[in-house]
Specification:
Elements: E1 12-18, E2 23-26, E3 32-40, E4 48-54, E5 71-83, E6 86-100, E7 113-119, E8 124-129, E9 135-145, E10 156-163, H1 165-169, E11 180-187, E12 191-192, E13 198-199, E14 202-211, E15 227-229
Parallel strand pairs: 4-6, 10-14
Antiparallel strand pairs: 1-3, 1-5, 2-3, 3-4, 5-6, 7-9, 7-11, 7-15, 8-9, 9-10, 11-14, 12-13
């Protein structure tokens, strides 16, 4: 909530990925300050960095831990400060509009992938716990696609994960085996399966239902789509 002194500033919204873990300091007046940087415009050549400050004693802006690589959307205002090296500007966050945890992916500003294909199975939604004991929801499924749809070759399978708010926002519970969909996302961290295979799942942020499977158990491969890298 804004104080009377803060109402003179224009409220704005910023969004992006945390460039470092938040640092907590205590000022000479005994006030707690949380600071970090946010990188926006990351899918283009020019990355914009914003210095962010949160004053928990004044504005109860976050109710859970943030870490480097997390995506955040914040509401607040820009303010200039006089420092020994001159004027500096920071974004004072008043409200957390959105927070997506880093999960398994490494946020290198790399290629986004678009994959179109059939669901190999109905997505399974389960709970996982972090090392800190926090509980998160994750939906897992696989997609059968083919980089050359005209070729009569075996489809390429991609393992996908959808986390937390993205599950509801993308109507994951409405998906079923055989549905023809399009997903967008970034590749996560490489890991080794029980069989010794190295894999990198697609961390999905957007899902579009192109065509529902009317039968519910349609054989995979009759309407194979393609993989596109952006």
């Amino acid at each position: 909530m804004e104080t009377k002194s803060e109402k003179k500033y224009t409220t704005e919204k910023i969004s992006g990925y945390l460039g470092k873990n938040p640092e907590t300091t205590v000022t000479k007046n005994g006030h707690t300050k949380v600071s970090f940087t946010v990188a926006s415009n990351v899918e283009k050549d020019n990355v914009n960095w914003t210095n962010v400050q949160i004053w928990p004693g004044k504005n109860e802006v976050f109710d859970h831990e943030m870490k480097k690589g997390d995506f955040v959307e914040l509401k607040g205002y820009f303010k200039e400060f006089e420092t020994e090296s001159g004027l500096k500007k920071a974004f004072i966050a008043l409200e957390m509009m959105n927070h997506k945890i880093k999960t398994e992916q490494k946020f290198k500003w790399g290629q986004q992938e678009i994959i179109r294909g059939n669901l190999g199975q109905t997505p399974e939604i389960k709970e996982v716990k972090s090392k800190e004991g926090k509980t998160y929801d994750v939906a897992v499924f696989s997609i059968a696609s083919n980089e050359s749809p005209s070729d009569h070759t075996e489809p390429q399978w991609t393992s996908c994960q959808v986390w937390n708010k993205d599950i509801d926002e993308n109507r994951i519970e409405e998906l079923g085996k055989g549905d023809f969909i399009e997903v967008r996302g970034l590749r996560g961290k490489e890991y080794e399966t029980k069989s010794g295979e190295l894999k990198r799942d697609l961390m999905v942020t957007e899902v579009t239902i192109i065509r529902k499977n009317p039968e519910g158990n349609q054989a995979i491969g009759s309407q194979i789509g393609e993989t596109v890298k952006m």
